[in-house]
């Protein structure tokens, strides 16, 4: 009888320990999603591709540093008619067995139009970024699901390099446009200004589309090198003096020596 009683106590303790461990695992899983909101994720392009920077004007730069294909397109809630270009997000999936449950960081560089706007929040990631949410060796299996529920939250960008300026292909002696890349912090710009050599006057540029800003140039009086001054959405400013050289070239990228604090 005593042996049977000891056996029952042993079984009870084993099951109790199992329940504690299970609850702890569940708690830790939920802990990883603290501060996150719900969204839908899909992917586009090649399975191991870089996606696109088209709608933000970054073109194929998204395949290279500092983006390294870790990018996303977003529906209008995220893209905001181009004002959302450059924003960074942590995204994670933890509702499918292929998911790692660990967040990755992606930058918004493109728009996901059409049916993406049927969802409250929709991330359309590059194939590379989508696969990065998976457990090791299960990227292809995760991509085969096509559409999954994820969690996300906005985070500060930290590119660990300075801002870059890519001269738009439509620029000429009378018109200058530039795509602004790799801004730290919230990634959103509220104002871009340009100043020509020998002038003390800053002229506001217009947001042409996405991360591309433009201004009319009067070549007789507004001569390069050009300086650019950026104001972030939260009113921080950085100034890139003489960043666009005298003999600037269309589609060339010019690196500054400034950036916002992450």
From TrEMBL:
<dbReference type="InterPro" id="IPR007118">
    <property type="entry name" value="Expan_Lol_pI"/>
</dbReference>
<dbReference type="InterPro" id="IPR007117">
    <property type="entry name" value="Expansin_CBD"/>
</dbReference>
<feature type="domain" description="Expansin-like CBD">
    <location>
        <begin position="174"/>
        <end position="256"/>
    </location>
</feature>
<dbReference type="InterPro" id="IPR005795">
    <property type="entry name" value="LolPI"/>
</dbReference>
<keyword id="KW-0964">Secreted</keyword>
<dbReference type="Pfam" id="PF01357">
    <property type="entry name" value="Expansin_C"/>
</dbReference>
<dbReference type="InterPro" id="IPR036908">
    <property type="entry name" value="RlpA-like_sf"/>
</dbReference>
<feature type="signal peptide">
    <location>
        <begin position="1"/>
        <end position="23"/>
    </location>
</feature>
<protein>
    <submittedName>
        <fullName>Uncharacterized protein</fullName>
    </submittedName>
</protein>
<dbReference type="InterPro" id="IPR009009">
    <property type="entry name" value="RlpA-like_DPBB"/>
</dbReference>
<dbReference type="InterPro" id="IPR007112">
    <property type="entry name" value="Expansin/allergen_DPBB_dom"/>
</dbReference>
<feature type="domain" description="Expansin-like EG45">
    <location>
        <begin position="53"/>
        <end position="162"/>
    </location>
</feature>
<dbReference type="InterPro" id="IPR036749">
    <property type="entry name" value="Expansin_CBD_sf"/>
</dbReference>
<comment type="similarity">
    <text>Belongs to the expansin family.</text>
</comment>
<keyword id="KW-0732">Signal</keyword>
<dbReference type="Pfam" id="PF03330">
    <property type="entry name" value="DPBB_1"/>
</dbReference>
